[in-house]
Amino acid sequence: KPRKSEDPLPGRAVALIIVLCVSGMRAESARYSVPEEGERGSFVANIAKDLGLTGEELLARQARLVPEGEKQYLQLNQHTGDLVVREQMDREELCGQSEPCLVRFEVLLENPLQSFRAEVRLTDINDNSPVFLNKEIVLKIPESALPGTRFLLESAHDPDVGNNSLQHYSISSNEYFLVYSRRRSDGRRYAELVLDRALDREQQAEVAFSITAVDGGTPPRSGTALIRVIVLDVNDNIPVFSQTLYKVSVMENSSQDTIVVVVSASDLDSGTNGEIVYSIVQNSEENLETFEINPETGQIRLKKPLDYEEKKTYEIDVQALDGGGLSTHCNVEVQVKDVNDNAPEVIITSLTSTLSEAAPPNTVVALFNVRDRDSGDNGRTACELTGEQPFRITLLAADAYALVTSETLDREQVEEYNVTVRARDEGSPPLSASKTLLVRLLDVNDNAPTFTQAIYTMVISENEPAGRSLGRLSATDPDAGENSRVRYALVRPLTGTLAAASFVTVDAESGIVRSLRPLDYEKVPSFEVTVSAADGGSPPLSAQANAWLSYELAKATEPGLFRVGLHSGEVRTARAVSERDAARQKLILLVLVRDNGKPPLSATAAVSALLLKDLSDVRLPGHGSPAPEDQGGSLTTYLIIALVCVSLLFLVSTALFVARKVCKRKELKAGHVLYGADNLQSGLGDGAAAGSLPRAYCYEISLTTGSGNSEFKFLKPILPSLPPQHCAVGQGPENEQHFPCVPVSTEDTAPDNPGTLSAGHFNSL
């Protein structure tokens, strides 16, 4: 809307727009004007043109308006950039008599985040007529009043401002009075009635005429009231105030019924003509609601508390009327003093509630304003953050701030922050207000999966069918969502290496390791594979595990007689058995199995050996351990009795029996396997389930003196025969591994951290 002729800015004017970035640049507000009571959809300005942007850019950057108050009176068309009226605005309702009447807002743009301040001035239209509070005004004037005497009249009220407000008064034609329009210090006009000709009660006891208040609008509006002048008998002295202007100050937090000022007037007349009555002239409805006067003492008191932020100055007209009807008036000017009774307000204009943990320092999280309705130091504010958090406040413009990150973030340490912004004014005592913002961190894939063990050791017996579960791998990832989802896979071996990856497979989801085919211990006593764990991030991160065991001979009765393979677990003789060795000797071999975990886990197994002079001393298993000499004698006696007592047919049968025994005899040689792989491995598998190796396996072994090249002959264990049992290895039913078990005693060297351990095979060197 074009401005009126008295406005120094013709037409709609944009004073200045400077791009306001979060870097802290100051900006002047863009100024527009629009008439009040504009229809919905009325054009105000083109924001896109003023910002130097196209409609497509406004739409792409999600331009939006943020009003200063709670109600949105304006609307932005993101396609055209037009600023239009959303709801009709009544200037008198929004601003009262204040001028200029401004509707402030901010234009927010994203990508990058920018803020522009703007304000729309509501120009007044002449939509209100002057109104007298009383339609009939009664004046009592003595007939002795001299020409030129002035009488204050009740003022008309017009809520419009500028030229549209009340401009002058006029009265209808009469013989006695004239009217003059006066202007107060606040710009409002009031009327004074002037006696132009002396009154004569005997000729005319009452004079009546109308008064009209006219505003300056086009066309002008007016309001009318009736004036009745009652002519009184002679009273030749009028009241006189001690001062014509009273100036007082009152704190805005003064309570109701507080005395503001005491006015005083005197009259030289005596009797009823000298008695004075005080009253407040009805020059505004607001004064009547705020102040009251004692008609006898002249004390003016508060009828309600004052508010500096609503009104700073009051002008009260007080009249003194004597008993004879003569009156005079004075002016009381009340200045309201500000006190710190308004806490600051934190107004969030933009908030990023979710933030990537990879956001760099100085990333904008929120934009906010701080407003304090008080003035001076009471309205001067400062902002701060409570607690130790990776954020800080940056000043953008006067009372405009940005909340930005001050350091790098880590969601794995803190998933969300409650950021409290506190605004404090400089009043005495200071008042403060707080606003808490919830900022959640979004996960990025910045953590690789981690295996719970660096090395996993698993055991399987040879010739086990394909699909047998060997164990389960476990890796964790502290990230969230897909970034923490772990998938397992075998790592392709280097070119030319043993294709160990073809022996087993790993379930990608559960990490369960299963065999792909039966294995032959003599061909593959042990093997090693590398498994990677990758998360579901983009790009994915991964980690690897390797599995291996080592063996060593921890203790032996004859330390130099036996040795154990480092990785195979095979126990071999280290030298030939000599005459110096006792005929009956029990060897306790402590085999130590240790993995490379942190901390390492270990277990032990005991092996006993019996040295015999020759195989004729071998005795079948029985109770106890008789001497070699007793074993040979029993066998000879048995053969002699058999030759005597049986027939040729029985002799032939005996010969076949002896031949069978001879076939079973083996020459003991140094370096041959002491333990059967299947027996030891199955027992060790049981120990692995409990984090330890099994109890001692006891065998009776016969060796001849000087049997450096003889091999051990495995007979049945001296323990009683027990039915086979099965043990489960793993955590949970889905991860169990089953092995044949033998009840044995165990020594566990790492009871505090049980793990899945295994014994390797004891192979020949």
TrEMBL record:
Its main location: membrane. Keywords: Calcium, Cell adhesion, Cell membrane, Glycoprotein, Membrane, Metal-binding, Repeat, Signal, Transmembrane, Transmembrane helix. It comes from the Eukaryota. One of its GO terms (biological process) is homophilic cell adhesion via plasma membrane adhesion molecules. The keyword Nucleotide-binding does not apply. SUPFAM superfamilies: Cadherin-like (SSF49313). Residues 738-765 are annotated as: Disordered. Residues 1-27 form the signal peptide. The chain crosses the membrane at residues 638-659. One of its GO terms (molecular function) is calcium ion binding. InterPro entries: Cadherin-like_dom (IPR002126), Cadherin-like_sf (IPR015919), Cadherin_C (IPR032455), Cadherin_CS (IPR020894), Cadherin_N (IPR013164), Protocadherin/Cadherin-CA (IPR050174). PROSITE patterns: CADHERIN_1 (PS00232), CADHERIN_2 (PS50268). It holds the Pfam family Cadherin_C_2. It is found in: Cell membrane. GO terms for cellular component: plasma membrane. Residues 26-132, 133-241, 242-346, 347-451, 452-561 form the Cadherin domain. The keyword Transferase does not apply. It is a single-pass type I membrane protein. PANTHER family: CADHERIN-87A (PTHR24028), PROTOCADHERIN BETA-1 (PTHR24028:SF118). Potential calcium-dependent cell-adhesion protein. May be involved in the establishment and maintenance of specific neuronal connections in the brain. This is PCDBD protein. It comes from Poecile atricapillus (Black-capped chickadee). The lineage of its organism: Eukaryota, Metazoa, Chordata, Craniata, Vertebrata. The gene is Pcdhb13.
